[in-house]
Write a structure and sequence with these properties.
Blueprint lengths: L3 E4 L4 H10 E5 L10 H10 L5 E4 L7 H13 L5 E7 L1 H7 L7 H16 L7 E7 L5 H5 L8 H15 L4 E6 L7
Parallel strand pairs: 1-2, 1-3, 3-4, 4-5, 5-6
Helix pairs in contact: 1-7, 2-3, 3-5
C-alpha cells in the first residue's frame, strides 16, 4: 500500500482523501504554516518516508506552485510521486473570458507553466496534475452550484492516478462533470 501525504487535509477533497488513504497530513493545524519556505522545507523533510505527495493546500497566494517547486527541487531524483491538485479554470476561461482577470486563473496558469517546464525533464519523480471542475464539497454547495463531480469519484481518480504513476512519469487528468457546460 502506498504511503500518501496530503496538504490541505482538513477540509474538502483533502480531508476526504486523507480519511480514505492518508498517511500524513500537512496544514497549519498540524504545525506546518506552508506560507513560508522554511515550513515547506520542514514538511518535505518530514514526508521523506512517503511514496505519494498530494499537493492540495490553497491560500490565495499560489501556495500550490511554491510547494510544487520545492518538492520538485528536493525530490527530482527520488523514486516518489507528486500529484498537484489544479483547477479547470483554463477550460472555463474559454466559455467565460472574464475569468482570465481572476487571481485564481493567473495562479492556475503559473502552475501550468511550471508543469510545462518540468514535463520534458528527466527525473525519478513522477508528476501528475489533476485539473478539477466543481466537486461535491461544502464550498461548492455554499456557492449554489448544482452540477458537480462527487468527492468519492475525485478521490478514486487521485488514487488511480497515484497507482498509474508508479509505472509512468507524467500524467494530466481533467475531471469535469456532466452538464456543467451547455
Amino acid at each position: 500500500m502506498l504511503k500518501i501525504a496530503i496538504t490541505g487535509h482538513t477540509s474538502g477533497v483533502g480531508k476526504h482523501l486523507f480519511e480514505k488513504a492518508g498517511y500524513k497530513g500537512y496544514s497549519s493545524s498540524t504545525g506546518f504554516d506552508l506560507t513560508t519556505s522554511d515550513a515547506i522545507e520542514r514538511m518535505i523533510t518530514d514526508a521523506s518516508d512517503v511514496d505519494v505527495f498530494v499537493n492540495n493546500a490553497e491560500n490565495g497566494e499560489n501556495i500550490k506552485l511554491k510547494v510544487m517547486q520545492h518538492v520538485w527541487d528536493k525530490w527530482r531524483w527520488e523514486d516518489k510521486i507528486l500529484i498537484n491538485m489544479g483547477s479547470y479554470k483554463t477550460m472555463q476561461a474559454e466559455l467565460m473570458p472574464g475569468i482570465k482577470e481572476s487571481e485564481g486563473y493567473k495562479q492556475t496558469i503559473e502552475q501550468q507553466d511550471f508543469w510545462n517546464q518540468i514535463a520534458p525533464l528527466e527525473s525519478k519523480l513522477a508528476v501528475g496534475i489533476v485539473e478539477l471542475g466543481p466537486i461535491g464539497t461544502q464550498r461548492t454547495f455554499d456557492k449554489g452550484i448544482k452540477t458537480y463531480t462527487s468527492i468519492d469519484d475525485v478521490c478514486k481518480t487521485i488514487l488511480d492516478m497515484a497507482d498509474i504513476l508508479t509505472r509512468n512519469q507524467r500524467m494530466v487528468t481533467q475531471i469535469l462533470c456532466k452538464g456543467l457546460y451547455k
